[in-house]
Write a structure and sequence with these properties.
The protein is an alpha/beta fold. It is built from 18 helices and twelve strands. α1 crosses α3. The longest helix is centred in the middle third of the chain and has 31 residues. It binds nicotinamide-adenine-dinucleotide (NAD).
């Protein structure tokens, strides 16, 4: 129900896999829904209570809701007149070069805009089609030429064909993005019966989450297939390997290692990836995804290095030297590479690590610093205070305790955080959709 106490009227533009499933399911949730498509066959089919394509469970929903008068269909954009919310579900196919084809989107948005002259009530346009981040801002919103009746939100669809009705009714994720909180709230409220709290985010963020999700799914499949292929070549049961890997809910199937931050390093990940891909190559087995992990990590480190080199700083205080927090292990620490490049480019640098004090560490780490990286050992400060006194810019290269973060904050020095939010150093300038 909307704030006026009436049932929200919904229009769904595009009755393909996403649109028809969304229309039938929203009608099933009790909303009056009009599906609009240029394809007469699909519209006729829905009117007769028949699903226009095969999707398990869709036909009974279409039949039931058409019979109940909650689901209608039309080929005319004029059927949008009564709608409070219009879901855009048109296709966004790949162009030959891989870019996203926005012809259907531009056309439907133009058609919606054409209905606005005679419109008196507000309209929320919810983009459900998959569109590249920035499309709502650069293509959809401008089409409405600042009409105060229209607000635009992004509400990406995550359903899978074959289980689409179940995915709609039992969603894994609901995302509503927009800059108008009331419009976002109203679209999110449609999903209240589904018992999953929608994630409310910014417009571009919602668009990006859809791409991030699909990229993640693709990477997961390729990962499982590459590990499976190598396992099979080694006469190990691929299913048993992956099933057992999935038993680990703390590090493997969890949010661990899924936060944008600094490059990885240390004594295990680089070494073991190298061994895995080397052995696969010896078996004439190409594993492009696994082979790309170290180059990807190197690229990420280089972005951080470039960002630090670009800083208008004279004296850089780098905080963190070990490859991660709470260790004094320096093996393959990306900070060592960062420092070497800064020194090489003539920057004045000093470094502090809470767990690496030359007079306090011993054994292999002390020897490593004194023999392998003495040029970096010489940069070590005895205390954070000493570094903060000296520096005119702080670079955080390791997760720090709350006390150290507070101490850095009190210094008033400008900070570049390589670990917390990658926006600080990789977000240079927003790209345009350019389609
Ligand atoms: N298919 C999936 O599993 C899936 C899942 C999640 C997201 N998506 C995304 O959802 C979007 C739609 O995908 P789909 O598979 O449903 O596409 P589809 O090609 O099956 O359906 C698109 C429909 O839009 C209609 N259409 C085009 N222009 C129109 C206009 N101006 N007015 C009215 N109708 C118009 C077409 O006739 C067609 O019926 C795409 O962006 C896709 O990437 C798809």
């Amino acid at each position: 129900m909307n704030s006026e106490g009436e049932s929200t009227q919904i229009a769904v533009l595009g009755l393909g896999y996403v649109g028809c499933v969304s229309a039938a399911c929203l009608a099933q949730l009790g909303f009056p829904v009009t599906g609009i498509d240029r394809d007469e066959y699909k519209v006729e089919s829905v009117r007769r209570g028949v699903a226009p394509f095969f999707e398990p469970g869709l036909e009974p929903l279409v039949r039931e809701n058409v019979a109940a008068g909650r689901l209608r269909a039309s080929t005319s954009i004029a059927a949008l007149a009564d709608a409070d919310i219009a879901f855009i579900c048109v296709g966004t196919p790949s162009e030959k070069n891989g870019n996203l084809g926005l012809d259907q989107l531009r056309r439907v948005v133009g058609e919606i805009a054409g209905t606005l002259e005679s419109r008196t009530k507000p309209l929320i346009v919810a983009v459900r089609s998959t569109v590249f981040p920035g499309t709502c801002e650069e293509v959809v919103i401008p089409a409405f030429q600042g009409n105060p009746l229209v607000r635009v939100v992004s509400n990406p669809e995550f359903l899978r064909e074959g289980v689409a009705v179940r995915d709609f009714m039992e969603p894994s994720l609901i995302v509503v993005g927009g800059e108008d909180p009331e419009a976002v709230r109203r679209v999110a409220a449609l999903y209240a019966p589904l018992q999953l709290t929608p994630c409310l985010v910014g417009l571009r963020t919602a668009e990006m989450i859809k791409y991030a999700s699909n990229a993640f799914h693709a990477i997961k499949i390729c990962f499982a297939n590459e590990i499976g292929a190598l396992s099979a070549r080694l006469h190990i049961d691929p299913a048993e390997v992956m099933e057992t890997l999935c038993e680990d809910r703390k590090l493997n199937i969890s949010s661990a290692y899924l936060k944008p931050g600094f490059a990885f390093g240390g004594s295990c990940l680089p070494k073991d990836l190298r061994a895995l891909t080397y052995r696969a190559q010896r078996l004439d087995l190409r594993l492009p995804l696994l082979e790309s992990a170290l180059p990807s990590n190197q690229q990420h480190l280089q972005r951080a290095i470039d960002a630090v080199l670009d800083l208008p700083a004279k004296r850089l205080g780098v905080i963190g030297l070990a490859f991660k927090e709470n260790t004094d292990d320096l093996r393959e620490s990306p900070v060592v590479t960062l420092l070497e490049q800064l020194i090489g480019k003539g920057r004045q640098v000093r470094v502090f690590d809470p767990h690496i004090q030359l007079d306090a560490i011993y054994g292999s780490n002390r020897n490593f610093i004194l023999q392998q990286i003495p040029h970096i050992g010489r940069l070590l400060g005895a205390s954070l205070g000493e570094i903060l006194e000296w520096a005119d810019h702080v670079v955080i290269a390791q997760k720090l305790s709350a006390e150290l973060v507070e101490q850095i904050g009190r210094s008033g020095l400008p900070v570049t955080d390589l670990v917390g939010s990658s926006l600080a150093y990789v977000g240079a300038g927003a790209a345009t959709v350019a389609s």
